[in-house]
């Protein structure tokens, strides 16, 4: 079976070159021999280095995407006697050469990361919240403790392949008898077998189970952000170390506020007389308190009122964004006789009259100037 180079680095098949390099650097800091001198870490470092080499090479990556393994004999053909691995692989494929035979796979494999999505309200994003979530992943088998054995005994060398993890077969072809190599059907490439498989996990060392977890969601989080919960992902084959769990947060829409980065926007509907004379409004903010908004006299339609520090808290930082009120001035459509008389008296005493607007600069910054310039292009 071809190795999962994407899984080794923990990236998906659509990962960019930058994402692959970033994943490699993250793992290298953990498994580099200068940091972790253990033999297991050295093997892991060699594995991730090979994965980066393959996925950064367009030709080798294409082989992986076709289901093959460019680091093995015949990788470009997805298995069998292919010619994608160089002259040595050709000789091995046809004549069974032993120098390039791959090593058996380790039964203990690291687990994959898992992704979970959860929704919170904007109020919860403002204050931070502990969220109960349910995750369905592979967990360590409690019956065999990950050994895969009913009696927790160690695996024994495979009698079919002698521990090589692969077997050779003679096949007829147009070239005559051809020696081919394939994964051992008995041990599935591990080179060893469990004599008494666990009845609960069938020798895999893990089972699927539903778990309840509590996610600490910090104040200021935004939609699309992910929270990493180390070692809460999938347990690996053979009871290998678990991957990480990523919880992706989606913030639900709010009936009053619209969030933009750390700012909170809201809309005020102000009658024209309040816009002219000035007024005050109050709104329930996300902290559960009342915020007073002063609308100054002479406010025009489309004006904005800024309230510094009344927005969303900055994620894991000091301070907060702003609250920004957008003013919509309303004009009454039905007037009583007294209201009409009052407005007529106001109009008679006002020096301003309705007029056609004339821009002094034909190439100014006004709305109609921009429209005029657009149609001249």
Report on the architecture of this protein:
Helix content is 23%, strand content 26%. It has nine helices and 15 strands. The chain has helices at residues 5-9, 17-31, 39-55, 58-65, 87-95, 122-127, 272-277, 337-348, 367-376, and strands at residues 114-120, 129-140, 156-157, 166-173, 176-183, 192-193, 206-217, 226-229, 245-251, 258-260, 263-271, 279-284, 290-295, 304-307, 323-330. Helix 2 runs antiparallel to helix 3 (39-55). The chain starts with a helix and ends with a helix. Its cofactor is Zn(2+).
For the CA atoms, what is the radius of gyration?
34 Å
Write out the CATH superfamily name of the domain at 114-155 and 194-251.
Urease metallochaperone UreE, N-terminal domain
Shape from CA axes?
elongated
The sequence of SSEs as H and E is: HHHHHEHEEEEEEEEEEHEEEEHH
Give me the oligomer status: single chain
Count all strands and give the number: 15
Which CATH C-level class of the domain at 114-155 and 194-251 is it?
Answer: Mainly Beta
| Main β sheet profile | 4 strands, mixed
The proportion of residues forming helix, as a percent range, comes to 10-25%
Termini separation comes to: 61 Å
CATH domain fold name of the domain at 114-155 and 194-251: HSP40/DNAj peptide-binding domain
- Per DSSP, the total helix count is 9
Specify the structural class.
alpha+beta
The average pLDDT value, as a whole number, equals: 84
Protein name: Chaperone protein DnaJ
CXXCXGXG motif repeats: 141-148, 158-165, 184-191, 198-205
Cofactor: Zn(2+)
Main location: cytoplasm
């Amino acid at each position: 079976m071809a190795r999962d180079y994407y899984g080794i680095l923990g990236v998906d098949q659509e990962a960019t070159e930058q994402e692959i390099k970033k994943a490699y650097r993250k793992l290298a800091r953990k498994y580099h021999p200068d940091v972790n001198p253990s033999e297991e870490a050295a093997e892991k470092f060699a594995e991730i280095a090979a994965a980066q080499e393959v996925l950064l090479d367009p030709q080798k990556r294409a082989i992986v995407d076709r289901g093959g393994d460019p680091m093995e004999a015949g990788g470009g053909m997805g298995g069998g006697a292919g010619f994608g691995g160089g002259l040595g692989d050709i000789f091995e494929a046809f004549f069974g050469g032993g120098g390039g035979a791959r090593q058996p796979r380790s039964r203990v494999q690291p687990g994959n990361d898992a992704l979970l999505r959860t929704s919170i309200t904007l109020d919860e994003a403002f204050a931070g919240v502990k969220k109960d979530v349910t995750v369905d992943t592979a967990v360590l088998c409690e019956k065999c403790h990950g050994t895969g054995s009913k009696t927790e005994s160690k695996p024994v060398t495979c009698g079919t392949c002698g521990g090589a993890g692969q077997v050779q077969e003679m096949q007829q072809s147009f070239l005559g008898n051809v020696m081919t190599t394939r994964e051992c059907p008995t041990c599935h490439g591990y080179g060893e077998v469990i004599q008494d498989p666990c009845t609960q996990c069938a020798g895999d060392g893990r089972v699927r189970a539903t778990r309840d977890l509590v996610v600490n969601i910090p104040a200021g989080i935004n939609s699309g952000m992910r929270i990493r919960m180390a070692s809460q992902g999938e347990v690996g084959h053979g009871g290998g170390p678990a991957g990480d769990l990523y919880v992706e947060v989606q913030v639900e829409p709010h009936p009053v506020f619209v969030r933009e980065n750390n700012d909170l926007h809201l809309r005020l509907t102000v009658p024209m007389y309040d816009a002219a004379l000035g007024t005050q409004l109050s709104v329930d903010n996300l902290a559960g308190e009342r915020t007073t908004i002063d609308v100054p006299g002479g406010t025009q339609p489309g004006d904005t009122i800024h309230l510094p520090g009344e927005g969303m808290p900055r994620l894991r930082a000091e301070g907060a964004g702003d609250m920004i009120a957008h003013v919509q001035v309303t004009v009454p459509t039905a007037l009583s006789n007294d209201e009409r008389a009052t407005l007529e008296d106001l109009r008679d005493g006002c020096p301003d009259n309705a007029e056609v607007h004339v821009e002094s600069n034909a190439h100014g910054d006004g709305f109609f100037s921009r429209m005029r310039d657009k149609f001249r292009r």
